[in-house]
Amino acid sequence: MKRSASSTKGASKRQKVSSATSTRNQDKEKETLEWPEYFQDLFKIFKALNTVLAFVSSHRHIATTFPMIRSSAEGLLKRPLELSKVAELKALLPDVVEFAYIPRSDLRIHGETVSQQNKRSNSPNFMLHPQSLAIDTPLGYRLPGHEEEEHVLVLEFAENFRTPKSGNLVDKRNQRFKDAVVELMKATPEGEVSTDLLQAAARDHIPVNPSAKKALLANESQNLIIPEPEDRPSIDNILLEIQKQQWYKNQIVDRRTFKEKVAIEGLLAEPLSHTIQQALRESRNITSLYYHQAAAINAIVQRKHVIVSTSTASGKSVIYQVPLLKFLEENSNATAILIYPTKALAQDQRTALEQLLCACPGLQHIKVATYDGDTPQDHRRTIRETASVIFTNFDMLHASILPHEELWRTFIKNIKLVAVDELHYYSNLFGSHVAQIIRRFRRICAAVGNQRVVFVSCSATISKPSQHMKRLFGVEDVEEIVEDGAPSGKKDYLVWDPFNVKDMDSGVAKLGQSGPTWEAINLMIFLMIRGVRVILFCKIRRACELAMKALRQRLSAEGRLDVLAKVMPYRGGYSQEDRRRIEYEAFSGHLLGIVATNALELGVDIGVLDAVIMLGFPFGIANFRQQAGRAGRRSRDSLAVLVAEDLPIDRNYVKFPDKLYNQPMDDLTVDIESKVVIEAHLQCAAHEMPLSKDDAFYFGASLGELCDSKLRKDKDGWYHPHPKFLPYPAKHISIRGADDDKYTVIDVTKVGLPRIIEEIELSRAIFELYEGGVFMHQGLTFVVKEVSHDTKVARLVRADVNWITKPRDYTQVLPRYIIHHLDWTNRNVDAMQTHRIKEIARSPHKAYFGSEWIISGTITMFIARTGVDVTTVVFGFRKIRCVWTLADILSISKSLFRGNKVLDVVDVDTPPYERQVTGLWFDVPKDLLGLLKEKHFNLAEAIHSASHAWMNRFALSPDLRTECKAAEKEYNKEESQRKRPARLILYDASRKGSVSAQAFDHSGEVLQQAHDMVETCSCKDGCDKCIHSATCSEGNVVASKMGALLILKALLNLDIDADSVATQFGSQGSETIVEATYIRPLDGVQVEPA
Ligand SMILES: [Zn+2]
Ligand SMILES: [Zn+2]
């Protein structure tokens, strides 16, 4: 190992100090003789460091950076000192050993105060690696979320720590070491080896350099080389190697190998012009077309609508680009609209088309433009007047292009082709809106005399593609192309069942060295260091952050900062700038690993990946296949691994892995009969051009009734928007759901240089941002310093802490140091006053509408306390340090896992956040409550699932919220203080919202639809068609399909055969739900008929 040259001057002095202390300690040494040799050796190291630090602290002008301490200690020990050993000391004596990275500026502050007595403020000892300052990062880029500032590793021993003994500082510290070893040996459970536990715990104490790229230099001597992707071993060999690892315990429960596939070429009915051939050859190196490409182009040229549903990366964009060039060659006035679900994707595709046009003689002058929400107003006119092709999205078509059709008339008249990429994105509620937008668009095209627009769609592999396209576009005669002519490499699929540690009373297991997250990360690291590019998909944001944090710790502990520098997390909530940068890094091949939520599932081309790891079964088979499809292309072999979590749906696939491959995909659903959605778009359509009853051709049979009841008719019989939607109906309809109020999260670590790192929705902010809490961003921990609910701003500082708050996954994801735990009992959503009451058809029960009250706040943190100090250490910023010894942790985890004592409680002084909203609710009938209890249903599961089932059937529910139930609360064995009423509550996401009033109007029919869906859904324990919600803030963990069905049946007054209802296998927690009490209506409220 390479060491920085260090002062020899200090070393000679140190000898003296050293011999003095060792004489004094000789007697006490005897008692350590019974220790395992390992601890005796560790003690030698501790004593050497103790000596060096004692010397240094008496000469305070020398800052105690680790490299400097290390070389002196090595001088005493006469052998190299490993970082991991210091981490073990830190794990053993957390209140004595201070071992962390701090910003270099803080060190300088430290130095400057000292320099008042001493002139050596510019001593090279103040730097970690003096030469590293001059050298720029070898990778030429910077990880987002990392401070620009350099950090240095500081090693210090505390002077004040708990100790009953008197004596000099060096002796006191040595004594503390001995005590700690004895405590640890005592606390070690039977069958465990205390040194193993210490080594395992030490991993978490390896300090992570927040500016990892700089630390790369510290690593260069290790000669660790990641193979270039081209030179990586084959997946076959890697899988063989995995099975020889000591941690491999038959986790692979299923393996399928899909053979390599050769390309199938297709022929065009009429050959392309020489110019187009030249463009394809020059810009893409394309000289022949795959079967599906040729088939699609043939159909489009004959003016047929086309849907192509083939694998990822099968060259789908060529399908509409080639006909587009052909149309432009035939008529230079031709125009086209290309639609993508995200801006990033539109950007990628625009660049690709520009290159193609540029290489096509005669078409170089053609203008293409992006037209999205970011397009400045003053550019929009130029684009309308000069561009031939626009790259846009449905939001713009809905809110900007169609409402201004008169400005776009020339463009619309000349449209030859509309391509909608990633068609599978448009389903469910968003798809229902899009279907109506397309109908509005077709109507305007027809009105300006353009009857020949060709619609082209591309999608991932979906079920019944042409049926989906027909419903979405409202067109017949769709040519469906599903035969994939693109070649593909060999692909292996694994189902990986993490080693079950549940019944194993292992200390190592409790320290978090097991479980799905740990195994997924283990696998990811194993692949990355062999040059395999991996994406790890997590289901929720928090899992993504935890996985990234664990990756940082593991890779730092193993000294693989070179790998760490090539891993990035990617999820919603990050700033646009960070996201673009990560996409760019991934695409340009700089990254080896990405940890992502499904925000990356579609869209942006992130280049070639070799392996996909899914941490937990994603929502639905289609998602599973799309995520798996992210890996592998052309001639390379690839791998997709499903790491099963401890959830019913995952266990099901572990048992029956065939289903992953054989089970048909769910049909994409688009509700084109939803009167709520149709009415909304009729208001828009009528504004674009007055409606007549003939427009039922586009909008369906309900048009007449809706026009008569909801629109305004003029004397000539034309329908116009209802005045309440004027002057701009499109503004009243949000097609992707209302935006929640957002909190801005600012990193204020660097004084005077605040940086916005995230924006998070109010519904999350309440529980993720509270003073003193830990917030995770890109796997780094921050402590929340200040939250203002008035300005919706949270200020955070970087702090390396070994704990997290909100242990929602604590039994499976992080059985690590569970010291923190939020009390959720004080979040409360409940009905307050009844304004309207409505009958449910054929049922004695009612739907209610009125005001609801949301109170959240007064968060309590539980801190397990045995020798835990919560202190404030000032290193230029506030840092909360929470320390405990390994022996403490073992006893804490025992007591936590056996659930018998809370060790300490700290109240966080957060003012309660209250707001009043409008919403609707259904009370669970009393008789049913009795039955559910008798059969041991968990009421929270049933209510939560029934609420989601209802929302899944209501077209505008993205604008609604329900109270999502959290596992850590519902499955808590301890009796909860606050009971909640047995009530399905749905409320407006936005305070300005009025969707809940519409929801109330349709409450009964939606209830019936929800019931029918849950009853007929073919899934076993619930899926995203019936009771799961993709937007559930608690990941749908608390769910019961049967419970939901019974509630829906009871509300609809349908027969329930109590005898046939199976008794559930014991509810997991103490009951949190009680019968709902009647909410008093306002005076004079009449019950409305169903
Ligand atoms: Zn289902
Ligand atoms: Zn939920």
TrEMBL record:
Gene Ontology cellular component list: nucleus
GO molecular function per UniProt: 3'-5' DNA helicase activity; ATP binding; nucleic acid binding
Designated name of the protein: DEAD H helicase
InterPro entries documented for this protein: CDT1_Gemini-bd-like, DEAD/DEAH_box_helicase_dom, Helicase_ATP-bd, Helicase_C-like, HRQ1_WHD, MZB, P-loop_NTPase, WH_DNA-bd_sf
Membrane spanning residue stretches: none
Keywords: ATP-binding, Helicase, Hydrolase, Nucleotide-binding
Annotated region described as Disordered, given as residue ranges: 1-30
Compositionally biased intervals (Polar residues): 1-10
GO BP terms in the entry: interstrand cross-link repair; nucleotide-excision repair
Protein's UniProt keywords contain ATP-binding: yes
Organism ancestry: Eukaryota, Fungi, Dikarya, Basidiomycota, Agaricomycotina
Domain Helicase ATP-binding: 297-480
Residue intervals of the Helicase C-terminal domain: 519-676
